[in-house]
Amino acid sequence: MPSSAPSTSARQTIGSVFRREFAGYFRTPLAYVFLAVFNAFAISLAFFVGYLYESGVANLDRFFLYHPWLWAFLAPAAGARLWAEERRQGTIELLLTWPVTVWQAALGKFLAGWAFLACALLITTPIAFTIGYLGDPDVGVILSGYIGSLLCAGACLGIATIASALTRSQVIAFVVGFLACFILVIVGYGVFDELLAGVLSPSAIEEVRRLGLWRNLEPFTLGLIDLRPCAYFLTLSFAGLGLSTLIIERR
Amino acid sequence: MALIEAQNLKKSYGPIHAVRGISFQVDRGEVVGFLGPNGAGKSTTMKLLTGHLLPDSGNAKVAGFDVSENPVSAKAHLGYSPEGAPAYGEMTVREFLQFAAELRGLPQPSEKVQNTLKLCRLTEVAHQTIETLSKGYRMRVGFAQAVIHDPEVLILDEPTDGLDPNQKFEVRRLLKEMASRKAVIVSTHILEEIEELCTRVIIIAHGEVRCDESKEKFLQRGSDLNQVFRQLTA
To answer: Chain B residues with CB inside 8 Å of A96's CB?
Structure first.
C-alpha cells in the first residue's frame, strides 16, 4: 500500500537548503552592513594598524594578520541565525518533519554561511590588485593567503554553528560563538602561558599555543599550504558541523 | 492496515510525564478529533507521531513506516502543520511552498505549488512575505505546506486556532474536501468542530487516552458537550 514516495537525493536537499539560507542573508540590509564592515575593517587594519603601505614590502602579510580577529567576530555574526532562527520561528519543527535528515540540513546551512563569508573575502580583493600595482608581489603567496583565510573563516563558522544550535536566541549564539573564537585567537599569542605553566610542561604549552588561529593561518600567508594547518581548520569546521548535527538530533 | 499507528507511546520531559502509554490506530477515511485540556499531551503525541520527538518507549508508524527506524520514508507520507503554523516569515508564500516542494523532492514542483496555491486560495497573496500576512492566511500557508504532496497521513495541530468564523469554515471545507482519501488527526479546543468535521473522537488527559469512540457514540454521551468534556478529563 505505501505508494512509492518521490525520492530526493541528498545533493538536491543540501542544494535547496543552501540556496534558501544563502538568499536569506541578502533579504535584510544587515548583510550589506556586514559586508561593508568586514571590508572597511580588513582594509583599514592593514593600512593604519599594520602600516602595510609604510612597510614598503609588496605582500599581504599585514592584511591577513588581522583576519583571525575579523573572523572571530564576524563568523559568529553570520552563523548565529543558522539554527537559532529556526528555533525562534518554530520552523525547525517543519524542517525536521519534512523528509530531510539533520546532517543534510546542517551541511546546507554551513555551506551557505561559508559562501557568505567567502563573499566578504572576495570584496577585499582590490587590495591584492593595489599591491600588484604598487610592487611585484608573488601571486601564489597572495592566493594561498586567501585560501588560508577562507579555511580560517570555515573553522570559526563551525564553532558558531555549535553555539547557534544550542539556543533560540541569536544574540546568545553570537556571544557564545564569539567568545569561543576569541579564545582560539588569543591562545596563539601565549595569553594563557602563565596560567598553564603550573599544570603543563613547556613543550605542552607550546602545543597549546599552536592551537591559535593565527599560528595556523601564518604559513598560508607565507605561501605554504601545509597539512597541519589545513587539518586544523578542517577539523574545526567538521567538528562544528558534526556537533551541531548531534545537538539538533537530540533536541 | 492502519495508516497511523501509535503503540504504547511514552514520553517524559525530565520529571514530567507528558505522554504515559498512548495507543490507537487511524485508518484511511477517518478524521480523528484530538481533544483535551491544555498540557494534556496532545501536541506531544503529535510530535511523536511526526518524528519531531522520539518516544522514550513504544513506537509510532506512519503509512507502515516506523517513525524512529525509517524516518525519511515515514515523513514522505506525512503532512504536518505544527501548532501556530510556523513558517519562514521572510519568504514569500510562493518561495516557501517551492522550498517545501523541493525538499520533498516532488516532480514538477512549480506546478505543485501553483495547484496548492489555488486549492488553499492563496494565489492572491503568493507574492507577499509570510510575516506580512494576517493570521488566517498564515494558518492556510501552514495547511498548504502540509498538503502540497497530497500525503496519505495528515496531522494538524490546532489548525483553526485564533481564526474568525469565516476562516474556520474555510479550513474545515478544505479538510472535508480531502479527508476521504486520507487518515487525518486534528487537534482542537472547539467541541463543535467534532460535529462539523470528525468521524471519531480521541480525548487525552494527563497523558492518557480517556475516550476513543466514533463521533455518533460520543455525541450520545450527553447534550452538553462541555459537561461531557469536563467529566472525561477530570
So the answer is: 51-52
